[in-house]
Design a protein that fits this description.
Distance between the termini of chain B: 37 Å
Low-confidence stretches of chain A: 1-30, 352-362, 498-502
Radius of gyration of chain A: 26 Å
Helix content of chain A: 10-25%
Largest interface: A-B, 38 and 39 residues
Oligomer: heterodimer
Distance between the termini of chain A: 70 Å
Strand content of chain A: 25-35%
Largest sheet of chain A: 6 strands, mixed
Structural class of chain A: alpha/beta
Strand order of the largest sheet of chain B: 1-4
Number of helices of chain B: 7
Shape of chain B: globular
Number of helices of chain A: 12
Radius of gyration of chain B: 19 Å
Mean pLDDT of chain A: 86
Low-confidence stretches of chain B: 1-5, 7-20, 200-226
């Protein structure tokens, strides 16, 4: 008699997954039972009518499985090669599962039989396939799904192991297909499902290697050499800088429990996933069955995953980062969770300042001003007013931390830019200072200053031009317009140590 | 009678084109020794390519139209479905008319290996072998073998990083390479005679050996020029095909 055994095992799995954990103590942790792995994951042939899988685009996740029997689930996945924005004014040719990076999220139940249809769009240049880490079998489906442009391949598998699994393209050269965005997540729920939570989101990290430097405008091609050297130009959540900031931030309400399905497509880098201002109550490490509690930062391997859960107690903006922290602030690995609700002062009384956390990232609602000027720059129709508008946004993101939003600086520490005789005396010098920084004594409006401004050479020529044009026309300063060419000329004429930014 | 009228109209159209287009030429390719990305035997990737003639550009829509006019069996709708899939010549407006989506000087695409092979036979020619194609495509403007040159590789990779939906350029829009051959890279994929010989061994499609290029980089173990991703991708593309397949970015040229 096969069935009773299976049913008991299924029940055990369900209990293990759903049981509330009354204590946080490690010694009292009863969860480390063996759930039986793939040997206990076959619940017999599929039952009922075939079900069309719900596929979602990040950060959205399909609804939990509400089903107590194994079914046949049909997945229709279309591969598209698309030019999409990777950063403001920067496009990249992504190879995608389902038209987005990361690829569509799939959610099935352990024991389900998946009939997978991989369709390669006729406009594709490349053949593609799919290797699902949820598959038990040679190549993870890759051999069976190798598909030329304009063709469709079909294969089936039974999902024997529960967990959160990466899928990716495995066509040679594998690294390039993955580097172009061909990865996503498939969740195989245990029979009892996952414990209910209030919000679920899909976050997947991946890095990109472009010929041009970070934020260099225009269309950027893939750089194989950088990929081999693992020298990423961008490290991103959900396929573009700004995919999860401003209005596109993921959202929750105070008191919610939030579950993040976190994946890492790589191709090379391991993620140190962290949410600034939160502690993960639970982490299902590597997307597996058992969880650790009270975790600050969890490693997500390339080609691996993690499920994190946490309750949000106070309102505000929580920043998702790869805590290999230069990736967050200089390569784009940054997202936002916005929590609405009443202040909870006993828990947190501090004053929140978005700008400090965000560094030179600006709020998405203002980004249109920046992208307007980028477009105008490309078409040669940029106006001074556009520069000023975009410059204000960029200034508030980068410069206002020290020089203050009103341009008045801090007496004795940060010199004023408002009504500044020093600034207006020499605009060429202003470009040099932004690019190279300034150390040592200066006199501004009659007052002495002696501090350090770091070089801001990570900013692009047009960004610096816009910031300075804004500065030269604000707070009582009048006139002056600086273009990217002016900045480029100064940049080109500056000796910089080898290896310094740009 | 109607067929006859069509033929006359088509011939007039073609002769119209001929006034501004250069006819395809076979150029002489001096043979030599060559290190292929695909070894003939394990560890032995030095192969010898003999002298041969190669068309200096991919076959165009106008040229292929002429072929199907003379060979109605290869017209869309007539061609045996074993030899062509249902996208065969589907960019053309009709079985013997190009229309606005298929310029006369654009390379013909959506042709199967069988159709390409038949075309070349009609020219008393054949499809080039992979080694012949790889040998010629290793050249840049000034060198017979430019594969060590990072610029050569980046040119190819740049083509890969453009999406494939746009209209194709006319043949010979770029510059000729060392052998006076145009469009070896950057325009279309091209059929070769033995496109499936380095991979698929019929009934062994599921694992190991023959089709290992298809997953997880195992193919890189037998590829001799591991860093040569650019060419490897062409191999991967060809290996995804069967002889009856047609795609929008796949054409061919003939050799003798």
């Amino acid at each position: 008699m096969h069935w009773p055994t299976t049913a008991i095992l299924a029940l055990a799995i369900a209990l293990a997954a759903c049981q509330p954990q009354p204590t946080g103590s490690v010694s009292g942790n009863t969860q480390n039972v063996d759930t039986g792995g793939s040997a206990a994951g076959d619940f017999g042939p599929p039952q009922g009518e075939p079900i069309q899988a719900v596929l979602t685009t990040a950060p959205n996740v399909p609804p939990p499985i509400d089903r107590d029997y194994p079914a046949k689930v049909i997945v229709d996945m279309e591969v598209r090669e698309l030019d999409l924005e990777i950063s403001e004014g920067v496009t990249y040719t992504f190879w995608t599962f389902g038209g987005s990076v990361p690829g569509s999220f799939m959610r099935i139940r352990q024991g389900d039989t998946v009939e997978f249809h991989l369709k390669n769009h006729p406009d594709s240049k490349m053949p593609h396939n799919i290797d699902l880490h949820a598959v038990t079998g040679p190549g993870g489906g890759a051999t069976s799904s190798f598909t030329a442009p304009g063709r469709e391949a079909v294969f089936s598998f039974k999902a024997l192991n529960a967990g959160l699994y990466v899928y990716h393209c495995a066509t040679a050269p594998v690294g390039m297909h993955v580097a172009n965005g061909m990865y996503g997540l498939i969740l195989v729920e245990p029979p009892g499902g996952l414990p209910p939570v209030d919000k679920e989101y899909y976050v997947m990290q991946g890095e990109f290697y472009t010929v041009g430097k970070y934020r260099e405008k225009g269309h950027q091609a893939f750089d194989m050499q950088k990929a081999i050297e693992e020298n990423a130009t961008y490290v991103l959540f959900n396929g573009s800088e700004g995919a999860m900031v401003g209005e596109k931030a993921i959202k929750a309400d105070v008191g919610d429990t939030v579950r993040l399905f976190v994946g890492n497509g790589g191709p090379n880098l391991v993620s140190s996933f962290h949410v600034i201002g939160e502690i993960f109550d639970k982490v299902y490490q590597e997307g597996g069955t058992h969880y650790q509690e009270n975790v600050q930062t969890t490693l997500v391997p390339a080609g691996g995953s993690a499920m994190t859960e946490f309750r949000v107690e106070v309102p505000g903006t929580f920043i998702l980062v790869d805590h290999s922290i230069f990736r967050a602030f200089n390569k784009g690995a940054l997202g936002m969770l916005k929590v609405d609700g009443e202040d909870n002062l006993p828990v947190y009384s501090g004053k929140e300042v978005d700008n400090v956390y965000l560094g030179d990232k600006v709020m998405a609602e203002d980004l249109s001003l920046v992208s307007d000027v980028t477009q105008a720059e490309l078409s040669g129709t940029v106006t001074k007013q556009q520069r000023i508008d975009a410059g204000r946004v960029l200034y508030n993101g980068t410069c206002s931390v020290c020089h203050q939003q009103n341009g008045e600086g801090l007496a004795g520490v940060f010199p004023p830019l408002a009504n500044s005789d020093f600034l207006m005396a020499d605009t060429h010098r202003a470009i040099e200072i932004v690019l190279n920084g300034l150390t040592g004594p200066v006199t501004v409006n009659g007052a002495p200053y002696n501090s350090v401004m770091p070089p801001m050479s990570q900013l692009n020529d047009d960004e610096i031009a816009n910031i300075l044009t804004f500065t030269l026309n604000s707070w009582g300063n009048e006139d002056g317009e600086i273009g990217p060419d002016d900045v480029a000329a100064v940049r080109a004429g500056t000796e910089r140590p080898k290896g310094a930014a740009h | 009678m109607r067929n006859f009228v069509h033929t006359v109209v088509a011939i007039i159209l073609i002769s119209g084109c001929a006034q501004y287009s250069k006819a395809s030429e076979f150029v002489h390719i001096p043979g030599g020794d060559f290190r292929s990305v695909i070894p003939e035997a394990e560890g032995d990737n030095l192969i010898t390519v003999g002298d041969f003639l190669l068309q200096d550009a991919p076959v165009t829509n106008a040229e292929f139209l002429q072929f199907v006019l003379h060979n109605p069996a290869w017209q869309r709708g007539n061609a045996v479905s074993l030899f062509v899939d249902d996208q065969y010549l589907s960019a053309w407006s009709g079985p013997i008319s190009l229309g606005t989506q298929a310029g006369p000087q654009q390379p013909v695409t959506q042709v199967s290996w069988f159709a390409a092979n038949a075309y070349c036979e009609s020219q008393y020619a054949r499809l080039p072998s992979w080694y012949e194609w790889e040998y010629v495509a290793a050249a840049d403007d000034s060198q017979a073998d430019a594969r060590e040159n990072p610029e050569w590789r980046q040119t190819i990779l740049s083509w890969y990083s453009k999406t494939g939906g746009d209209s194709l350029a006319d043949v010979r829009s770029g510059s000729a390479n060392y052998y006076d051959v145009y469009d070896a890279h950057g325009l279309v994929w091209e059929w070769v005679d033995d496109f499936n010989a380095f991979l698929v061994s019929g009934d062994n499609r599921e694992q190991g050996g023959a089709d290992q290029l298809q997953f997880c980089g195992a193919g890189a173990i037998t590829m001799e020029e591991k860093e040569n991703y650019a060419v490897l991708m062409r191999v991967a593309m060809l290996s995804s095909l069967e002889a009856g397949y047609t795609t929008r970015n796949l054409g061919f040229r003939c050799a003798r």
